[in-house]
Specification:
By secondary structure, this protein is of the alpha/beta class. It has one domain: 3-Layer(aba) Sandwich (Rossmann fold). It has 12 helices and 9 strands. The protein has a 7-stranded mixed sheet with strand order 3-2-1-4-5-9-8, with helices on both faces. Helix 2 crosses helix 12 and helix 8 runs antiparallel to helix 9. The two termini are 31 Å apart.
Length: 285
């Protein structure tokens, strides 16, 4: 992977400014409901039991606060900071926190993740997480992970959920975009022509990035592995008809969710994941 801006800050800010008001509509897309349930399952199994009472979290690139909301409501003892580049996005996070009664426990800060250590200097967290394309859009994933690792308390956890290089190439081939798929294999690319260019990752690359930041890698996983999104799932509205029909049947959804959950800890399925999940921890000594 070559460091360097996958896209300019202005491009990224403009892209998310345009999506802010409708971003949470992805909660209505059956495929992303499945993906979110799997992510929460992984967190509930491997992360939540390791967090102390009254833990502090940092939602790095937290956008509209979809995952800050999950942690803040599941663990009312928690408090945290949502840090994001786009005020239009975290304005929705603030409103959500007000509506659900945890605004006193969630601070929203504007900033570039390339400067997060300086911006949050002096603050320490039990949990730092960045989900979906956050590390894909930064200039240097290694530098950002190193900065985030430095914000952890001893024993603290860093959780990343990032775009898979192999899935991106598969996705673009299904759309007939061979040139883009070839570029994906170099670690750069995009899923649609309208999104900013980003970094794409492999499991071993994620291990190397976290270990270079002084962290211990406790788990690498990838999911979903049995169902992949179609082009419609890259949009804020709409769903691929076959996925909507399949996942719209509640019994089928639960059976598929159970199958996917059974594969979360299988190392031989990691590379099939639509997204890659890595849990790392800061040593205590």
């Amino acid at each position: 992977m070559t460091d360097g801006p996958a896209a300019t800050l202005d491009e990224i800010r403009s892209y998310f400014d345009g999506k802010a008001d409708a971003y949470d509509d992805v909660d209505a897309q059956p495929y992303w409901v499945l993906s979110d349930e799997l992510l929460w399952s992984a967190l509930a199994k491997s992360v939540l039991p390791r967090l102390p009472e009254g833990f502090r979290f940092l939602d790095a690139g937290g956008g509209t606060g979809r995952w800050s909301h999950r942690f803040a409501t599941a663990r009312p003892d928690s408090s945290g900071v949502l840090y994001d580049l786009t005020p239009a996005m975290f304005g929705h996070a603030r409103a959500k926190a007000e509506r659900h009664g945890y605004a006193d426990r969630l601070a929203c800060r504007e900033g570039d993740l390339g400067q997060v250590a300086e911006e949050l200097d002096g603050e320490r967290f039990d949990l730092v997480f960045n989900f979906h394309n956050v590390l894909g859009f930064v200039g240097s994933p290694q530098d950002v992970v190193t900065q985030l690792a430095g914000l952890l308390k001893p024993g603290g956890l860093l959780v990343s959920f990032v775009p898979s290089r192999w899935h991106a190439a598969w996705f673009n081939l299904t759309l007939g975009r061979t040139d883009e798929a070839e570029r994906n294999l170099t670690g750069r690319g995009r899923f649609t022509d309208t999104m900013p260019d980003m970094h794409l990752f492999t499991p071993e690359q994620l291990r190397a990035i976290n270990e270079a930041a002084g962290l211990r890698v406790d788990l690498i996983s990838g999911f979903p592995v049995l169902l992949y999104p179609g082009y419609q799932e890259t949009q804020l509205h709409g769903s691929t008809r076959s996925l909507a029909d399949l996942l719209g049947d509640r019994r089928a959804f639960e059976r598929i969710l159970a199958m996917e959950r059974s594969l979360l800890d299988r190392p031989d399925t990691v590379g099939r994941g639509n997204n890659l999940f890595v849990l790392a921890s800061r040593p205590t000594d």
